[in-house]
Design a protein that fits this description.
By secondary structure, the chain is of the alpha/beta class. It has 8 helices and 7 strands. It holds the Pfam family adh_short_C2.
Length: about 250
């Protein structure tokens, strides 16, 4: 039986790594993409240690650069397999910040540009680059955030960038529907162990985020990965053009 080829971006840590592992558990062939070669190598080694015989292939690539699309296409063609599913987990919170009041315009612009490049362009470049190589009946999953609904503090570039993915998902679902390809977004709340916040959240902020949930706990990367796996499985095939929140009840409804 020919394995499915699954492409996961942002696969060196957190939700992306957990997602790659979930598909490896299913005996799929997984292409793991991330910018940092060393971290990506460690992620592959960790997954292989827990999933003996996993069919994993790492590719160090910066998907905020449009030229990376051609590199990705060449790499996929070399596998001889069509892409069954693409899960765009790459993203980050900008390190540059202007303050909410009296902010410097240049600093604010830098923050918004960084947020857009890291959270929107990484998805758009991967999707548009791989669509010609995707099999009909496949799946595209983008990763948004609860911040798209509630804002992200500061000048708001991160939350706004994630919200841009919602419109893109609906556009993709309409474009790809005739090919039987589903397109959805997952919007997680606070998930522990993702490295999204660099060196970690201050204890007081982490406590606040946990208290905001109905379940009174943080999410786990494996829980988010399971939802992504479902959306790329036959039972999830009729789900498309949806933004699925998974946040422990920290934000209710759409």
């Amino acid at each position: 039986m020919v394995p499915r080829l699954i492409v996961v971006t942002g696969a060196s840590a957190g939700i992306g790594k957990a997602t790659a592992k979930r598909f490896a558990d299913n005996n799929d062939k997984v292409l793991l993409i991330a910018r940092g070669r060393d971290r990506l190598t460690r992620a592959v080694e960790e997954i292989e240690a827990s999933v003996p015989g996993a069919d994993l292939e790492p590719l160090a690539l910066d998907l905020s650069d449009a030229a990376s699309a051609q590199t990705l296409q060449h790499h996929i063609k070399a596998t001889g397999l069509p892409v069954n599913s693409l899960l765009c987990c790459a993203g980050s919170v900008p390190r540059s910040e202007g303050g909410p009041e009296g902010t410097d315009v240049a600093a604010t612009l830098t923050e918004w540009q960084e947020a857009y490049e890291a959270n929107v362009l990484t998805s758009v470049i991967a999707v548009e680059g791989l669509l010609p190589l995707m099999s009909d009946g496949g799946s595209v999953v983008l990763y948004s955030s609860v911040a798209a609904y509630r804002g992200s503090g500061g000048t708001g570039g991160y939350g706004a960038a994630k919200a841009a993915l919602h419109s893109y998902v609906h556009t993709l679902a309409t474009r790809l529907g005739p090919r039987g390809i589903s397109a959805n977004a997952i919007a997680p709340g606070y998930v522990a162990g993702t490295e999204l916040f660099g060196d970690g959240l201050p204890a007081a902020r982490e406590t606040m985020l946990v208290r905001q949930t109905a379940l009174r706990r943080a999410g786990e990367p494996a829980e988010i990965a399971e939802l992504g796996f479902y959306l790329c499985s036959p039972p999830g095939g009729y789900v498309t053009s949806q933004i699925l929140q998974i946040n422990g009840g920290s934000h209710h409804g759409a």
